[in-house]
Design a protein that fits this description.
This protein is an alpha/beta fold. The chain has 21 helices and 7 strands. It has a 5-stranded mixed sheet with strand order 4-3-5-7-6. The radius of gyration is 26 Å and the shape is globular. 51% of the residues are buried.
């Protein structure tokens, strides 16, 4: 092909490269604006409340299977309100996703153009912020485990591309420390990620350097981080006792054996993958046709099939269905992008691609949820890989155009999924994010915007606290799975905020039997208005206790009644 023929193709490639990069950066800006807008909206009384209580009262939490509070409490100490705490989580997600993107670029520094660099960073962060469609971005074991994995892999890649010995070792120690944070927050994920990062470091490190040195520094960084976090918060003996007791509580609600869980992962993944192949048959077929035929007609067919996928996607699905449907799209689009650019990737970049595909699954390891959809909170590696693969092909405009169209579709679908969340029901809340617009002060959380029924719930809880003299720091028992009631009352959970059933309450009260004499006791009533079952330590409940009031949390119309300590005998 003559230079005269090649030049228009080069110009078209350059224009398309820049256009997709600018589109990705604009999508990122929109996603960031949404995430910032949502920081002060919504008050959720189960999962997010649990994370907040751990961060606010780490010393009061004496039973746990995840020591996430060791990493979260310093963030609460710095921030001190719900909005700024969430902002810290947002910064952590953005920063760790960017480190991962920079690590990917470090491995491809010999041929990366500015559009590719911009796209890798932008799409990495967009996919990292998918976390925001599951629950708000308060630092938690899931958020910090994802961020730890991103930072660990990113620093490892930076180290592997680093010629200087000292800078390389410092980057490896930073990678190990990030895995240490992940381990503290989610031990199973920390172990899985450390193994993946260590293997990738051995495969990707520069030639002429001892492979074992990377593993040693990764291990040293992780061990040092865990030791520092532990010693700043507690003692080894107390931590072991808390973990053993926490495992006892965990078994009361999660009895699934490890091998059974792994088999379930495999079955669920297979079922959802087969469904994804069926849903995307038109797009997959169009890409195959184009790979064989390589004509403009086949390229147009790919774009039409991609448009069909994007238009027909159910962006307003809710909960687990939403996560599964999005993950099916993400899996197929990523696979098509990687396969289309595979021959243009070096051997080293192919190992990098394999590590990036597996990284979200290492973070999800140990989850009680479906593995297929759980990785939606850890997708920054897929974003960076999608951009890397899309720009890898140094081919004619027609082939390059198809790869970049797939990337643009991936970006559009992912960012739209985040942006439409403002009109959907947030996790365990009954009104959309747009309707969470009434300011109310909630205990130590500060000013939060909520919907009208939630604002009434907070006022009713305030009235109950005033009626019984429940002051800041009062011990708290929540029966069952209503830790957010402690936040509304500005109370402190006894031993653990995680009480889901009678057996767990029995175990907690056996350790601190006297707490019932002074505690604020919140009880979620049964649907028919009756009281739930109680632990034996509360056999005289509620007759011997002072009734304070009732409030209804709008999600599921949960009626919560409040009592205060045992009434002294006359």
């Amino acid at each position: 092909m003559s230079d005269a023929v090649r030049e228009p193709s080069r110009r078209a490639n350059a224009l398309t490269d820049r256009g997709v990069a600018v589109f990705a950066s604009v999508a990122l800006a929109a996603v960031l604006l949404y995430c910032g807008w949502s920081l002060n909206r919504g008050f959720e009384i189960t999962d997010e409340a649990y994370y907040l209580l751990l961060a606010m009262y780490p010393d009061a939490t004496r039973l746990y299977i995840s020591a996430q509070q060791w990493a979260m409490s310093p963030l609460w100490d710095i921030t001190g309100s719900l909005t700024t705490f969430r902002a810290a989580g947002l910064v952590v997600l953005i920063g760790s996703s960017a480190v991962l993107g920079l690590g990917i670029l470090r491995m491809t520094a010999n041929r990366g153009s500015w559009p590719q660099r911009l796209s890798v960073l932008s799409v990495s962060v967009i996919c990292g912020l998918l976390y925001a469609i599951t629950i708000n971005v308060s630092p938690s074991y899931n958020l910090l485990a994802s961020a730890g994995a991103y930072a660990a892999f990113g620093w490892m890649l930076i180290a592997c591309g680093q010629p200087s010995g000292m800078l390389r070792f410092a980057s490896l120690i930073a990678a190990g420390a990030a895995v240490g944070v992940e381990f503290v927050c989610k031990p199973s994920a920390g172990v899985a990620t450390w193994l993946l990062v260590a293997v990738c470091a051995a495969l990707l490190d520069g030639a002429g350097r001892p492979r074992w040195s990377a593993v040693i520094f990764l291990g040293a960084g992780a061990a040092a981080c865990v030791a520092v976090l532990l010693l700043l918060q507690t003692t080894p003996g107390a931590a072991l006792e808390a973990f053993v007791g926490g495992m006892d509580l965990f078994r009361m609600v999660q009895g699934e054996p490890i091998l059974t869980r792994l088999w379930r992962y495999a079955v669920e993944f297979s079922v959802h993958t087969v469904a994804a192949l069926k849903v995307h048959a038109f797009l997959i077929g169009a890409v195959i046709v184009h790979a064989v035929w390589r004509r403009w007609a086949s390229a147009v067919l790919v774009v039409v099939a991609l448009g069909h996928v994007i238009v027909s996607a159910d962006y307003f699905a809710y909960g687990a269905d939403q996560y599964i449907k999005y993950m099916q799209h993400a899996l197929i689009l990523l696979a098509l992008l990687v396969l289309s650019g595979w021959t243009s990737l070096s051997v080293r970049e192919r190992w990098l691609a394999a590590g990036l595909v597996l990284l979200p699954y290492s973070v999800a390891m140990g989850t009680g949820n479906a593995l297929f959809s759980q990785v939606i909170v850890s997708l920054a590696p897929w974003g960076g890989l999608a951009a890397l693969a899309a720009y890898a092909r140094k081919s004619a405009f027609r082939e390059r155009f198809v790869s970049l169209a797939l990337l643009a579709g991936f970006v559009l679908m992912t960012s739209t999924q985040i942006l439409v969340y403002q009109s959907k029901l947030p996790y365990n809340m009954s009104s959309s994010m747009r309707e969470q617009d009434l300011p109310v002060s909630i205990g130590a959380l500060g000013l939060v915007r909520v919907d009208a029924p939630t604002k009434q719930f907070v006022h009713d809880m305030d009235a109950a606290a005033a009626r019984c003299g429940i002051t800041a720091g009062t011990p708290f028992l929540g029966l069952y799975n209503i830790p957010g009631a402690a936040l509304a009352l500005n109370a402190v959970p006894a031993i653990t905020p995680w009480l889901n059933n009678v057996a767990q309450a029995e175990a907690v009260l056996a350790r601190v039997p006297s707490v019932v004499n002074e505690a604020a006791i919140a009880v979620k009533m049964n649907a028919d208005g009756s009281l739930p079952a109680f632990p034996s330590q509360l056999a005289d409940f509620p007759s011997a206790f002072r009734y304070c009031g009732e409030a209804t949390y709008p999600y599921g119309e949960q009626r919560i009644r409040i009592w205060k300590g045992r009434v002294p005998a006359s």
